[in-house]
Amino acid sequence: xxxxxxxxxxxxxxxxxxxxxxxxxxxxxxxxxxxxxxxxxxxxxxxxxxxxxxxxxxxxxxxxxxxxxxxxxxxxxxxxxxxxxxxxxxxxxxxxxxxxxxxxxxxxxxxxxxxxxxxxxxxxxxxxxxxxxxxxxxxxxxxxxxxxxxxxxxxxxxxxxxxxxxxxxxxxxxxxxxxxxxxxxxxxxxxxxxxxxxxxxxxxxxxxxxxxxxxxxxxxxxxxxxxxxxxxxxxxxxxxxxxxxxxxxxxxxxxxxxxxxxxxxxxxxxxxxxxxxxxxxxxxxxxxxxxxxxxxxxxxxxxxxxxxxxxxxxxxxxxxxxxxxxxxxxxxxxxxxxxxxxxxxxxxxxxxxxxxxxxxxxxxxxxxxxxxxxxxxxxxxxxxxxxxxxxxxxxxxxxxxxxxxxxxxxxxxxxxxxxxxxxxxxxxxxxxxxxxxxxxxxxxxxxxxxxxxxxxxxxxxxxxxxxxxxxxxxxxxxxxxxxxxxxxxxxxxxxxxxxxxxxxxxxxxxxxxxxxxxxxxxxxxxxxxxxxxxxxxxxxxxxxxxxxxxxxxxxxxxxxxxxxxxxxxxxxxxxxxxxxxxxxxxxxxxxxxxxxxxxxxxxxxxxxxxxxxxxxxxxxxxxxxxxxxxxxxxxxxxxxxxxxxxxxxxxxxxxxxxxxxxxxxxxxxxxxxxxxxxxxxxxxxxxxxxxxxxxxxx
Length: 698
Known about the structure:
Elements: E1 23-25, E2 30-33, E3 38-41, E4 60-74, E5 80-93, H1 102-105, E6 121-131, E7 134-144, E8 154-164, E9 170-178, E10 185-190, H2 197-202, E11 211-217, E12 220-226, E13 232-240, E14 246-255, E15 258-262, E16 271-277, E17 285-287, H3 294-303, E18 305-309, E19 313-317, E20 323-330, E21 339-340, E22 348-351, E23 355-357, E24 367-373, E25 376-381, H4 385-388, E26 394-401, E27 407-413, E28 416-419, H5 427-430, H6 432-440, E29 446-450, E30 453-459, H7 461-465, H8 469-487, E31 502-508, H9 513-527, E32 531-535, H10 540-546, H11 548-561, E33 565-570, H12 572-584, H13 597-610, E34 618-623, E35 641-644, H14 648-656, H15 663-685
Parallel strand pairs: 1-4, 31-32, 31-33, 33-34, 34-35
Antiparallel strand pairs: 2-8, 3-7, 4-5, 5-8, 6-7, 6-9, 9-10, 11-12, 12-15, 13-14, 13-16, 16-17, 18-19, 19-23, 20-21, 20-22, 20-24, 24-25, 26-27, 26-30, 27-28, 29-30
């Protein structure tokens, strides 16, 4: 379904219509005040430095209301520029010191020592203006007669003309007074662009400005720049990160007309476009057409990341500025939802791309962070797991503190927080006395402490191993006996192998049920040839008893001792596992299931390829239509790579070894294997929901 921005052709942002703007003649900045006030504009810009944030005793002037208005500053009929007029309404805050207190207080702000109470009230009004990529600050001096300077009363307004800005730009304006009471005002405004008829008639550069439309191009966005032939212009795509901060993403100088395609995956709400003709002092026009689109908002959250910064600080990194709610939670190693730590850990609002502090005494791998937007969970990460290791089987003790020094202690479990001590049947309740002893003896590290409560993490390993030591010993003895018995049965499969055939160990990644059916069909067909095939699909019981690594080592040793061959059957999942292993270099990746022998084998298989021991002992294969042979990782292409069933004759010749059958007999066997394999392979490659296909006769 097309997204909303495809329904309209947008030219240079949101259409403000034909705006009739007031014209100001001349190029000088000016200031004027309400009747009864006097004001003076200091010449030139001032540094945009924050004023004192300390509250000043009254009376002082404070901004009560901030208003802006776009106008035109003209030096001729067609030589105009867009400008922003700023009006600030002022009010008096605080009360004047009595004469007896004057010596102690040092005099009221704005009144020199020794002056009478009838002296006028004086203040500096600071106006700060930001619009990418420029910023300005100006200073206005305002005097208010003593008769008007009454606390809580609005005394009038001061108007500044004006801040020049680009057409269609987003501007942000701050206002505060010095000396300060406590208030600061700010607002953001979107300025009109060249589509306003009054603006287009008055600003000459609008006639040469590139006109831009946003249109649909299937799933992507097409930017159509409708300009004359050979006209040169610039275009900039950038992230508007708020408060005047922008991050360029793509810039180019082009010659019109042009069509530019932007992938919908790159769209975020703050992605903005700026265009201008390639000539000196040209007008630049910016707009952000994707700010309200739900798919752009989804892309924003998918690109957001939580980064832990030393010591104990963190940052929510995202392309755009966003407001969210964050809460710490506790993730148990057995899965299940992450339990928020409230109470006593409070929720707090965060802003992206700003550094925040965790109120923690100590980190823990089970502590995770949940980030929500309007009550919807958008992001969950466990930032301490990278440095402190995997999740631990610890129990979190939560102490809540109430009035009159009242305290309550509970253990956080999947069903809730179990009070300690308790007669419940949960694990924490059964071990309640031991947990309390560990807590009082200092064996539970404290993670957080506050007037609302505290958190401790108590290890549970000793409680698990101590009662079950004898049981584990018996299980190990039983497993050893079972292992010896199962070694005698490892060659068995659902299809009886031909006697005297060469041994073949078939390894594959756990890549879905359809892929496993194709593997099973191939293994069954190979068993009908003079081959003895071992595959983990037929050894699930042995794998569960021994573990995938022990099963693989036993099978590989037996296969190679008998002069057999190990077949590595690659799939997209196997390629991903190998790339993970090759990039990390720290060992084989974690198995995707209890029967994943392929992941367990990488630590042993890859050294054989790297040290030149693979030729003659290994064969690599993949299925037609599922993976191209050139997608197999480079280290594994040191031996022949076959695509099945199209290269079955060569594959069977490599499996059967030097004593392979004549070519005619081999071709016949290849046809038999292909007929058995093709229906399962078709089912694996068929898109979900597609109608079934009749299986080919064997």
